Every structure is written in structure tokens, then in C-alpha cells.
Structure to design on (206 residues):
């Protein structure tokens, strides 16, 4: 599982509230999820969700079928502890998204904030896109956020890819229709600014 040890070390060394990608509330993500119009019972997967607070926000908003996937056991454990009894309502997957073997057409909505930009190998990106297409229902919703073209060139000691909105959408291809894109100036716990781009797409119905 590539980079797993790297991320376990990151979460061993830092509190989940001090990592650069920490958000008290995932406001941009939650707004995009709400605007899709999916039902509260829709199946949602948060890829790279780790210790993210998006799952808390989704539950607070009434969504009930949530899966969180992450490489890091430590990050997932932190989220479980934070959620307490509500953690039993979540499906937790410790896996690499590019070879996770996710069920076919299981999810109504795919969310990823800051995993895709770590895939610097074209084969990894292709495997990711194929996983999305296979596991999201036809007509389903895909929200992916990466560093923007003016974002950082590295994160947590690893190189990343940066994308303009059209470049990010192009990675997914014609099977995904771009509905909307937004940019975020994320302020890290240390006070620096990281610029993100979010693309919201629909999977074509074949």
C-alpha cells in the first residue's frame, strides 16, 4: 500500500487539528454536497476522509449512509474516537483507493478533498478514475478537490500535481460531465494559505 507508512508517521507526529489540511468544518465540500440534491439516504463515500470532519458535518445535516476511506489506520481511529457512538453508523475502509476493490455502482456521491493531487503517476490517476467510474452509480455525483494551479507544489513532504479546473476535469474525461467548479483559499492551522480547486461532475448514464 504505497505511502501508507508515510501517512501513519504524519498522524503519529501531529495532532489531527494541526495538519495543514485540517478544517473545523468542511464548508465548501458540504455546500457542494447539499447542492447536488441527493437524498439524505444516498450512499456517500469520502475518499481520503481520514480524520476529516466532513463525516460529522454530513451526519449533522441528516445524511445517513457514509463510507470513509483512508490509507491511515491512525487517522481513521482518530475520527472514530471523535464521533463516539456515531462511529458505528459509518463504514470505515483502510485502503488505497487505486486498488481498494470497491463495490460496483454502490455510491451516489464520491467526495475527495486532497487525495487525487498526490497521484503523480499517470497510471495511478487512470486507476483512480476507473475506480470512480466503476463504483459510482450512472448519473452519480463526483466532487474532487486538489491544489489549484497556484497552489503548493508539495504537501507533507510529498510532491503533488496542481490543476486548473479544466485540467482537473480533463483527467476524468468525457464520461464525466463538469457541472461546477469553485476555488478555495484554505488557511492552514499555521496561518498559511493553500489554494484549492473543486470540480463537481456527474457520471454519464451509458
Amino acid at each position: 500500500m504505497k505511502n501508507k507508512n508515510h501517512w501513519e508517521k504524519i498522524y503519529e507526529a501531529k495532532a489531527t487539528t494541526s495538519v495543514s489540511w485540517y478544517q473545523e468544518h468542511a464548508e465548501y465540500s458540504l455546500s457542494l454536497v447539499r447542492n447536488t440534491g441527493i437524498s439524505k439516504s444516498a450512499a456517500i463515500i469520502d475518499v481520503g476522509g481520514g480524520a476529516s470532519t466532513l463525516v460529522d458535518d454530513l451526519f449533522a445535516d441528516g445524511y445517513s449512509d457514509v463510507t470513509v476511506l483512508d490509507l491511515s489506520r491512525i487517522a481513521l481511529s482518530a475520527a472514530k474516537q471523535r464521533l463516539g457512538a456515531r462511529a458505528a453508523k459509518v463504514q470505515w475502509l483502510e485502503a488505497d483507493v487505486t486498488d481498494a476493490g470497491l463495490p460496483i455502482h454502490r455510491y451516489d456521491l464520491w467526495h475527495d478533498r486532497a487525495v487525487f493531487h498526490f497521484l503523480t503517476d499517470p497510471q495511478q490517476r487512470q486507476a483512480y478514475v476507473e475506480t470512480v467510474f466503476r463504483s459510482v452509480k450512472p448519473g452519480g455525483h463526483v466532487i474532487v478537490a486538489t491544489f489549484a494551479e497556484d497552489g503548493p507544489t508539495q504537501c507533507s513532504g510529498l510532491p503533488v500535481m496542481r490543476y486548473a479546473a479544466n485540467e482537473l476535469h480533463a483527467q476524468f474525461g468525457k464520461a464525466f460531465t463538469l457541472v461546477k467548479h469553485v476555488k478555495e483559499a484554505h488557511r492552514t492551522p499555521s496561518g498559511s494559505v493553500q489554494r484549492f480547486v473543486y470540480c463537481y461532475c456527474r457520471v454519464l448514464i451509458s
